[in-house]
Description:
- It contains 22 helices and 28 strands.
- It is of the alpha+beta class and 740 residues long.
- It has four domains: 11-67 and 344-415 and 643-662, D-Maltodextrin-Binding Protein, domain 2 (3-Layer(aba) Sandwich); 80-86 and 247-328 and 677-690, Alpha-Beta Complex (Dipeptide-binding Protein, domain 1); 88-239, no CATH class; 419-640, Roll (Dipeptide-binding Protein, domain 3), CATH 3.10.105.10.
- The strands form six sheets. A seven-stranded mixed β-sheet has the order 14-15-16-1-17-28-18. The chain has a six-stranded antiparallel β-sheet with strand order 5-6-4-11-13-12. It has a six-stranded mixed β-sheet with strand order 20-27-19-26-24-25.
Amino acid sequence: MRLLRxxxxxxxxxxxxxxxxxxxxxxxxxxDPEGHGLTIMLPGAMPLLNxxxxxxxxxxxIVDLLHQPMVRIGQEGHLQPGLAAGWGWSxxxxxxxxxxxxxxSAAEHLQSLDADRWIEWQLDEVNPQGTxxxxxxxxxxxxxxxxxxxxxxxxxxxxxxxxxxxxxDQMRAFHAHFLKTSVEQGQIRRTWFDADHTAExxxxxxxxxxxxxxxxxxxxxxxxxxxxxxxxxxxxxxxxVLEFRLKPDATWPxxxxxxxxxxxxxxxxxxxxxxxxxxxxxxxQIQSLDTPQPDRLRIVYRDFLGAxxxxxxxxxILPASWLERNPPDTLLASLATQVAPGAGDYQVTARRGxxxxxxxxxxxxxxxxxLRFQAGANDFVTQAGFAxxxxxxxxxxxxxxxQLRQNPDARIVxxxxxxxxxxxxxxxxxxxxxxxxRRAFLLGTDRSALIEDLVPGAGGLHxxxxxxxxxxxxxxxITPHDPEAAAELLDAAGWLTDVTTGLRKRPEGTLxxxxxxxxxxxxxxxxxxLLATQWNKLGAEVEIxxxxxxxxxxxxxxxxxxxxxxxxxxxETSWDQLPLWHSSQARPGGLNFSGLSDxxxxxxxxxxxxxxxxxxxxxxAEDLQKRLTQLSPVLPLFTDLQPAVLRSSLxxxxxxxxxxxxxxxLALPPEADKPTPAPHMRLPEKEDENLTTxxxxxxxxxxxxxxxxxxxxxxxxxxxxxxxxTADPPPAPKEAxxxx
Length: 740
């Protein structure tokens, strides 16, 4: 008893000492020569600041201050210039002829035509080079060259074959060996590798010669297991071209200018290393990267992918010289001892242990604040620092949010959502093939209750397939919880309630669903149990099956051997949704896990995929969203939110909604959203055409795969050696869904 009384007497003293220590700790990181700035307490350890892969939203926002992309998303959700002052699309069309004289005659014929016809065709340039004739069109519309190609038909352009070669592995090495002995290798006009087991070739020359030579080479080596497929034959090669014009005042921390060579080197670095950067599918489509001028970057794509521009949105550019000194296989080790130089608005001026200081790169008026980050403190120290006004921003544990909402000095804000959880339906399931049944499960699911039970204050509702708050994202109403409407839909679909069991039945059996979730993920398993309870009230018998992530993808989803599955997906800026919903991807092995097959959806997806003008995207995206809402191939659950506490007395540089907190919004005045640059930009002069660099050699694009927040994040695999390919997959995102 005496010991207990002594302990109670000492509690105020202990609390005072701890509070003093917390204030002193946070003050140490707060001090700077000018005595102003923001002190930000980080949860967990100090992030690595990897430009290409961030472990969480907070690290992503710090990286966003240090590194400048070519294009960024403004505060109002529109495209804004970053390092690029402007950009535009064009189209390159190439024909090959039997000899140089014919190619030159074809060019002279086009040049002799009336200028009005060039304007009608949007034809900008005609350049003969040997047996090749290159045409440049101001528009990426693949239909514009048709009239010009009819004019050239009388000159007998050589046919162009598209060939795909698939092998068990080592495709690069075998192709390199083939070239050493090939007589017709000059007919191979383009080469593209997908990983190390597939290559595609564009071949034009004497019909059949190079194709037959390639066929004989691989047939004579049956151990390779190669398969040759003729994909098609055309009269001209059409390639969309994206060109960036860089800002003249963009510099690195050492004051050297940012050049197009830096941007090209960064793209090649990511392609070769396999980092799964956002929108990485567009990098897989790159055929070549050219730098005709220090301020010009030209990217030639294989396919007419209008959303390829999104690959450059929020994609950090690094100095080519630094990337050369820090190859992909040593990048993580390098970042442990140094910060990658960036062209962003801030730069690191101090980094020691758990402390990080960022200062504005350029002195402006008003001067942006110094940002001081401290990591490693426990929740008590953080709370004490906030109470003593020595901490301005911190990320609290979810169980403290309710208490903090009562604090008048605390403003609860969150970052825009980056991922979402959903239930993917197998639309070929006997019961789930009826869209009314799928819609009934949405109406019968109380998603707000799921958020409150699992991630209170850290989840939001969003029923659309596109990332929220972008210029093209349609305003999709949130479907309310309406169990009565759900029951009516199930009745209409013929699933009637058995009064003895409470389950819904039809003559062929009970409404029974097997729900897949990820084994070992406690929150996912809890979510499955909550869903089963809610759906049981609708009259469904639900069996939960917890499997490993690899088994779920490889043995369940890709094979379509499932009823329903809880999955997390990252939001991307890209408006291309074709891989997820098109019927061509519905067969086993495709990413359309739901198996949705709908002609109207296909047409909208194809139109959206080939739309290059960002201003034309919203109308198509709205039609697609309406159709997907009708079909309900998935049940959207909730998005992630990253609740943060901001001192309410802080003066911000501009208005900031509570749902859009970013460190950029805290530190920098918002740029007014500018109109998206028009799809047509001034093209290079003719003399620029000869100032090209060779395309990257043998890039290895990362394979398209579903992000997983259930896997550990390994370092990226190093670029494979010339013969032996890497077998490791690229790292998978940790934050593919909330509640991980």
